[in-house]
Hints:
Blueprint lengths: L6 H12 L5 H16 L6 H9 L9 H11 L2 H6 L2 H4 L7 H20 L10 H12 L6 E7 L5 E9 L9 H10 L4 E7 L9 H15 L4 E9 L2 E4 L7
Parallel strand pairs: 3-4
Antiparallel strand pairs: 1-2, 1-3, 4-5
Helix pairs in contact: 3-4, 7-8, 9-10
Amino acid sequence: MAGKPDLQENAAVAAISEAPPPPHYHGHRKRLRARFRQAGAQGLAEYELLELVLFRALPRRDVKPIAKKLLEKFGSFAEVISAPPARLAEVSDFGEEAITDLKIVQAAANELLRGGLREKPVLSSWSAVLDYCRTAMAYAEREELRVLYLDKRNQLIADERQQVGTVDHTPVYPREVVKRALELSASALILVHNHPSGDPSPSRADVEMTQAIVEAARALGISLHDHIIVGRQGHASFKALGLI
């Protein structure tokens, strides 16, 4: 009958009025996204940038305490996204979806920097090489050796992880490194490995291994441009140190 309130409409209005208010962190998320749009990452604290990454994986959680807990455990944004999944899983309230999102961010950062090395002479983009190496390896918990294979124009042919070792040692086989260079028709190499201790200073074993690769490569007309060691405290260049 005209003029009578519709029962379904009344029920809908009642349901809306009885619905709980949105969680307090919804407003915080909107404000944080707005700040990021206006000022970028420079306008945010590290935990706030980490919050932005976690929003999608944890849509119904207040992620600020989780972000702060991760930074307290690992030390920095870079160390959080680089941490092994098993270590990340040790943090309470931090599940597989959130770990996957962090690993996606890490992979994207590595690929972005790797892209800067392609199609241009590597030796003229040395700062990009160092940025890529530190992002890819500086925060790893075990030593690993990466080899950048270059063509005659010093452009990147391949970037390959050769070996993964322990916290303080990586087995390196010079013949395998040189064999792979021949397979790729590489003219030059750059070796990169990390020191999980954080100190990039070369050890005696590092120097001996490097000299063995220099000699094996030289016999086949392949140059070793540099050996870079990366760690949380910076990097060391064998060439700059006069070791090759």
